[in-house]
Amino acid sequence: MNASARLVRESAPGYLGSIARAWNRFWFEPTMPTTLGLIRICAGLLMLYVHFAYSYDLTAFFGRDGFLSLKEANRLRTETPRVSSPLGWYSSMPSLPLPPEDRPSRTGILDWIEGVWDDPDPKTRDLIVGMLWQPELPPDASAWGNHLPPALILGLPPDPMGASEANLRGRGLVGNFISKLPKDKAERTRVLQYMRDWGLDPRQVNATGGYYWSIWFHVSDPTWMVVTHLGILLAMFLFTIGFCTRITSVLSWLGALSYLQRSPMTLFGGDTMMNILLIYLMIGPSGAALSVDRWLEHWWRKRQALKAGLPEPEWTRPEPMISANFALRLLQVHFCIIYFSAGTSKLLGGQWWNGQAIYYTMANYEFSPMRHGYYLSMMRFLAEHRWLWEIAMAGGTYFTLALELSLPFLVWNRRLRPFYVAGAFMLHTAIALFMGLVTFSLMMATMVLAFLPSETVDRFLARFEKHKRKQPEPVEAASDDEREDEEAAPAEKSEKKESSTHVKTKHRARR
Amino acid sequence: MTREHPDIMSAAPLSNPRRLLYASAGAAGIAVMLALPAGVWVPLRVLCIGVAVLAAARAVVVQPRSPRIVASAAALALVCGSAMDGSWLQLLAQGKPTPPPGLIVEDDWDTARLVMRLLAMVGFFATFLLLLPFVVGKLYLAYIYTFQGERSPKVATAEERGQFAGWVLTRAIISVLVVLHFIGIGAAVMAVPAGQREQSWLAQQIWQRWQPYLQFMYLNNAYRFYSPEPGPPSMLWFRVEYTDGSFQWVRLPTHGIDDQDPLAVEFTRRLSLGESVNQLVPVGSVPLDMKRRRQAAGNNFRIGKHPELPLDFQYRRPMESCIRLLPEYARYIGRAYPSTDPNVDVAGIKIYRVVHHMLEPRQMSAPHLKPTDPWTYFHYYQGEFTKDGELMDPDDPFLYWLIPIYAWPQGAKPPDPFEDVTPGMMYLEAGPVEVIDFMKTHEKIPTRKRGGGQP
User: Fewer Cβ atoms within 10 A, N terminus or C terminus of chain B?
Assistant: First the structure.
């Protein structure tokens, strides 16, 4: 890596070079995987809990006849239309603009069209299409024979260009649509049925269905469902303790995704956060620290050494890894996007400006602990004292806004970071206590852990180690300024830097 | 990067990648063979595929930097994907697989096949990245030899420099992937309209192109929590009526029943069911004939309007994607809550979307007002369904209308709810209130008497 670093310095001089170096340092600088290990344990425990809770409702949520039946779930995932928005200023004209969000009217029109096509006399269709194109409709309804059009069509102007506000733009378009339907009955029926269901002509749809994975689309027998569920729980448990983590992390994510994709109408924010955590824990070496994998590796080394008559190897700390830093950075950036989006979207709401928003989250009976007497008494007490109420509610509201809007920018400052991390923990503790979203808050708090330096986590964990005297002092990560110096200075300076860092660490330790 | 000491760790169990790959290939081969007889032995086939994938994954874990191992594992994932339903094999065997007893298999394991293809794609791409520094190093060396001759002073370091260029290229590719990943996430955030405005065209275009990735990874979230404002929760209440005239209410969720787990995850999930039908067609002016039908039916059944809300706000039709879910829920409730008498069947299931409003801050200080008072629940009728999930009367004049329960200060003269009322604010905190409950009337209306407002 030293040779690489030297080559980086040589090959990327100047301003652009410094940007490239900063980018390289941000994403690809090795860091200890301890924080990632801690996040794995926290996220794993929460994930286990969330999925264990599914055990009560396995068939209700994922079964063949659950809240969303397997048949409908399969239909949604395979038939949902995907239509691209226009590349220019105007959308392409649908072959038959049907009334949106009005399935009964839509069905009425399409049934009529199907009836026209199914008429045994082939001339009827041409006749009706011809009448639709006429500037004046026949005064006598009997002229339509058995195919009197629905009122919605009869009320349309004849020229497609003449009525931009109408749902169906002109009778002529309807006539066009009828004459251009496939002659093959099976194909025509398919087109009309799809239009009844989705309101769009399948011939104009870019694609149907989506990209989903769930084992519950394929396993629906109750016994096998229990077996599969237990298998997924086992994988999640192994991931939590850090056993075969590289494999169990992927299995856990695929397992969690199965639950998310099969029953999307039962999800909430906690599921979204859990998925994000699992993705990045899967990318990073989340089992490289605080894991059974580490313990097994040490145990194996010890056993082999004893067999070979060598001295017992010491328990060493995990080495810094690029992939650990990479995963943590991904998590940090994603967390900032979440906060920024949550903060900016709140600016659209008046209650976030007048300072009342927090009240409406705290007084929400379904989420908050309003059913407990002490909580209700507290809310009533605050409401009886307007000054107190305003200070508490406005304070909470503006604190939330300020934190969500500024954290994405200021958390990167090393001096401000501890305050922002503490602020985020405070916010999520309050959400858990007063808004009842405990799982969501714990997931978010777990994400905040990504901002804790591994050295801090290591130092904290060292307090619980029996043999901490044997452990080397954790090396303090270099500050940004020091890193800049390192990049700029020739390689010989590295020794000097090491000693200065050592002094700094000792100094901090004394403090 | 940390790696185990090869001398010691190579002796660890399951640490020979070549053997692991052989085992994986064997299991994948058996799975392919089992796919030939069109759908039989499916549990065994799935088991073989599982073993094959795990063995290949373990081989990659043991030697993650070996392009050969990673590429072999990727190829095996492709083979496993084919064995998932063996659609091409079925052409040989003829006919569609029939579900075996025990494990019920839907048409084919198409979503699992997608996972296998994805794993294979990731594997092949990783192989490319692993090979890149090596290939670039060799190419650069060849370039120096060809154009500058073997006596060139650059020859000695050519391969190292080439490998370095390859290494930089690898990081550049990974960096591009990172940027693309976050562009997708940003597009998912921006592609949702803000307020009444249309969404960003650019975000929409990007989001559409990233859709397969975002959808598969479940990263399609706009993260707009409690925005623009924290609104009241929406729940689903079902009134299940049986053929003997008895009925029961199923309220999703209910405290004390659905919050059995300490963190109330299951409660929140049931609450999400209510939210799933809470995407509403924007409030506009309700067609006159619809208002007239509601008025007529209201007069017939003595079900008035809410005096606090403009009439157009009392009709809240869910979006079609939500309406699609209602029959599903009705069907589930019909099956999950049968009568205690086996001879009695479910006659109908009335669904209400219930919005539980919070007490206003000033109302909170009044001890006689409780957060669970009946008038805080706004019931929007979603129709009556058969136990098979069929909407009994699509022309029901009350469909998607609010069936009001409201409170009025005791002693004050309330407006006539059967006439056009001017919405007004009621200061309920001032003193005792009386409750006017039209739900009691509505829940008892038999379906067959409805339609066109005629009792």
Answer: C
